[in-house]
Amino acid sequence: MSGLVLVFFGLWALPAFALEAPAGARIVTLAPSLAEITAEVLDGDLSSLVGVSEYTDFPRELSKRASVGPYARVLIERVVSLRPTLVLATQDGNSKEQIEHLGELGLTVVVVQSKTLADVERSFITIGTALKLRSRGELLARRFQKNLSEIRQLAPVKRPRVMIQLNADPLIVVGGEGFLAEAIEVAGGRNVYADLHSSYPRPSVEDAVARKPDFLIVLSMGSAADVFERMVKSWSRFPSMPAVARRRAVAMPCDDLVRPSSRLIRGIRDLQKQLRGAE
Fold first, then answer.
1. Strand partners for 90
2. How buried is residue 115: exposed, middle or buried, by Cβ count under 10 Å (0-12/13-18/19+)?
3. I need a labelling partner for 144 at 20 to 30 A (CA). Which of 262, 265, 266, 278 fits?
4. Euclidean distance between the first and final Cα of the chain, in Å?
5. DSSP assignment of 81-136, as one string?
6. Which neighbouring-strand residues pair with 141?
7. Distance of CA 48 to the CA centre of its chain
8. What's the predicted TM-score (pTM) here?
9. Quick one: angle between helices 179-187 and 263-276, nearest 10?
């Protein structure tokens, strides 16, 4: 028996026959951000959300839901065992092979994209439509866009040069593509790696120093804050870098900034506070 795999990049409506009404839905989400958006669309009624991927922790109640494993390689048998009427997957992280396999097993799978801020905005509508709550999804999408507009209006007058670091060895930074690259611009910064057509390039340390960022922001993930503080301190050997000379090399908690959901708004605001602190 074959199921239905639907991939959405625009604001198209789902076929009317695709899903049960929310009251009878059993939803499994294959990425933390999808669980967060689903919870918002359902307006806090999480009873139909029966399975989530690893590291799903918001709203907190979802951390108690059945886990289907890491989003990069979910446990297919566990997904099937939850008898979902709808599986929500992301093109930016889930395995295409696994998504297709779930469809072959007879499950209805809706795949959304979250590479850009526009994609994130559309995902509210896609998920809302999938749950037959399109108007709620449209409301959340408008709210997301409104918040972005408000943040842009508060951008620093002088746009500083920004480098965002995700890893030290190898050095991984935010490049010129993806929602994190756009987040820098929305917050009021100029990404020193905007010229690279990659989401997460791996430049040399020498190249990073040569680009002279005014701000060097290390994204701090999880609870091991000391690891990221050491990453910041490692740049102190380059006093010619403006970010180091002006003490603007910092570690910033990024749980909000790296989630392509409504939490992203809070993360961009936090980033903007860092940039405005220099005014």
1. 112
2. middle
3. 278
4. 61
5. HT--SEEEEETTTS-HHHHHHHHHTT-EEEEE--SSHHHHHHHHHHHHHHTT-HHH
6. none
7. 23
8. 0.90
9. 50
